[in-house]
């Protein structure tokens, strides 16, 4: 970890490891490993506590197309009126574009966000807290099955609709059965036919939960 001197008046600009973990929706240990790998810059207080530079976190977020921390929190009224958020975690540009086209044409009430890999997807999930998660099984960094297993340990995940998307046939999916059990799965060759009705059903379940 890089030792960085910080004057007292700038202490409030930096975050504890736990604060960064909460902002990114990740485990504290995962953030510690990011510091150890040099992905985030940090320093230690005289008491030995690790502090992560806000500028370093902002650079990491913006480098992945995410909003920096300095934007402030959205007003509660705006949050209440927001569109339903859909997060697509998919490394294929072709399928990213295809999902974006389907959503824009058939679901203008949805707000679509896209992550290119599993690690970025975990971070975006923590930031966005999406209503619907579309995730490929095979992803760089961390596969979709492991990603979903990690997310299921978070209380907020209980309110998210999950749909798997994969090019794997049923036999090839067997190693991931532990994560796929009782969850909708779309075979990529049938994406155009199967995604719209599955999204419609997810939206209906979300609406029923909201009005209950």
From TrEMBL:
GO terms for molecular function: DNA binding. It holds the Pfam family Response_reg. Gene3D superfamilies: 1.10.1660.10, 3.40.50.2300. SMART domains: REC (SM00448). Transmembrane segments: none annotated. InterPro entries: Bact_response_regulator, CheY-like_superfamily, DNA-bd_dom_put_sf, HTH_17, Sig_transdc_resp-reg_receiver, SinI_DNA-bd. Keywords: Phosphoprotein. Coiled coil: none annotated. GO terms for biological process: phosphorelay signal transduction system. This is Transcriptional regulatory protein YycF.
